[in-house]
Amino acid sequence: MTTTRPAQTVLPDAAPxxxxxxxxxxxxxxxxxxxxxxxxxFLDQGVEATTVSDITALAGVAKGTFYHYFxxxxxxxxxxAARYTxxxxxxxxxxxxxCMPHDWEGRLRxxxxxxxATYLATWRLHDIVYxxxxxxxxxxxxDNPDKNAILAQLGAILAGGAAAGAWPPxxxxxALMIYSAVHxxxxxxxxxxLDDSSAFAADxxxxxxxxxxx
Length: 214
Fold this sequence. Notes:
- The structure is a single chain.
- The chain has 214 residues and is an all-alpha fold.
- The chain has two domains: 25-70, Arc Repressor Mutant, subunit A (Orthogonal Bundle); 76-211, Tetracycline Repressor, domain 2, CATH 1.10.357.10.
- Helix content is 69%, strand content 0%.
- The protein has helices at residues 27-45, 52-59, 63-69, 73-97, 104-137, 145-163, 171-191, 198-211.
- Helix 1 (27-45) crosses helix 2, helix 4 packs parallel to helix 6 and helix 5 (104-137) packs antiparallel against helix 6 (145-163).
- The longest helix is centred in the middle third of the chain and has 34 residues, at 104-137.
- It starts with 26 loop residues before the first helix and ends with a helix.
């Protein structure tokens, strides 16, 4: 007599265990969240009115986490200024990078127009991180690493154009004049609450090139 065995049920392989989630965020993520929270609060309610407790509450971290990165609110301002400068430099470099390498007039025009547009879009943060930080630790405007970094970027364009005969030499002097002119006239546009910056930025670029004899 043949005995029929019941068919064996084949169970699917067990799914691999899900990777354990890290209990803490990476240090760079926590730092970025702290700085983003501070930036938002400084813009909303001002630097003096914002406390460290406000910043850590918005960032969702313990108060001790703040002091792990910054001795005080003023050191955070310095870090925010450096981050702001890095973003501005990247924005300007991206605009200039769209031009041909030896198109010095085009590169200068792109730099000026991008500078105007960036300043108009971010002037409130600009005034907070630069003015407040310099006031808090007594940095004179002549000893300003953020301004010097932007001047160095502009100076490189002007030096390249001077070497190619696009305009006269003295790139440092020209950089100082253009930097001051761009910020001066853009301050006026901010006061006038200018909505569309494109035509204004083009006019400023034209004026800078005329200043160089182009």
